[in-house]
Amino acid sequence: MGSPAACLFDLDGLLLDTEPLHSQAWLQAASAFGLTLGPDQLLALRGRRRLDCAEQVRQWIEAAAGEVPSVEALLAVRQPIAEALLPQALPMPGAISLVEACQRRGIPMALVTSSSRSAVALKEAPHPWLASIGLRVHGDDPELAMGKPSPDPFLLAARRLQVEASTCWAFEDSPAGARAATAAGCRVYVLLPADGRDRAVVRAQLPASCLTLHSLDQVQLA
Ligand SMILES: [Mg+2]
């Protein structure tokens, strides 16, 4: 397959093991408004921007519990929980060595994340190895009209790296992210969940062209 012109990395659930922490924060926030989120709902929130997730959870609460919290009220419960949990996230297996391998080979890298700039700062503080990914597209990037699953974040990253998106390899873990990267024309690798039930649900939602991984250790850059 040759080498990628650039590697575009998702952050949550791909380089850092934050998804169980995000799920815990959404579970607690929704339960404060009378809704117990199920596993499929938690999977559906992955890879999307905080405000998009909050709007989705608000709709679920409205449909199930009748109460209609504002997005702001939901986030007021959710954010302190998330901010306490997220700095505890560990690197995903193989993440550090994959980033280091790109750096050694001079392959340009970008972080393409739905997380806001401030949320990324919080999460990456304990992980100095992430600093080698210099180019960032955040969920609140001023040049970004639409978040994942729209292709915009990946197209913006490719444009900033001055490469064609079709020559980039994108690394994702969520169906929303995989759809975004596929629509942008990238070669897309999807890191599957370790849990068998979640894995089946994620697989069923991936574009057919995605390549799947059980660990980032499986990636061969050349
Ligand atoms: Mg992700």
Model description:
- By secondary structure, the protein is an alpha/beta fold.
- It has two domains: 6-18 and 90-218, HAD superfamily/HAD-like (Rossmann fold); 19-87.
- Helix content is 45%, strand content 11%.
- The protein has nine helices and six strands, in the order E-H-H-H-H-H-E-H-E-H-E-H-E-H-E.
- The chain has helices spanning 19-31, 39-45, 50-65, 71-85, 95-105, 117-124, 152-161, 175-184, 196-205, and strands at 6-9, 109-112, 135-137, 168-172, 187-191, 211-213.
- It has a six-stranded parallel beta sheet, sandwiched between helices.
- Strand 2 (109-112), helix 6 (117-124) and strand 3 (135-137) form a beta-alpha-beta unit.
- Helix 1 crosses helix 4 and helix 3 (50-65) packs across helix 4.
- The protein is globular.
- It starts with 5 loop residues before the first strand and ends in a 9-residue tail after the last strand.
- The mean pLDDT is 95.
- The structure holds magnesium ion.
Provide the CATH architecture of the largest domain: 3-Layer(aba) Sandwich
CATH homologous superfamily of the largest domain - what is it? HAD superfamily/HAD-like
Question: End-to-end span in angstroms?
Answer: 7 Å
How many domains comprise the coordinates?
2
Adjacency order of strands in the biggest sheet? 3-2-1-4-5-6
Shape: globular
Could you name the CATH topology of the largest domain?
Rossmann fold
Number of strands: 6
List of distinct ligands in this structure:
magnesium ion
CATH class (first level) name of the largest domain: Alpha Beta
- The percent range for helix content is 40-55%
Mean pLDDT, to the nearest integer, reads: 95
- State Rg: 17 Å
Total helices: the number is 9
Structural class: alpha/beta
Largest sheet: 6 strands, parallel
Percent strand: 5-15%
Q: What are the secondary-structure elements, in order, as H or E?
A: EHHHHHEHEHEHEHE
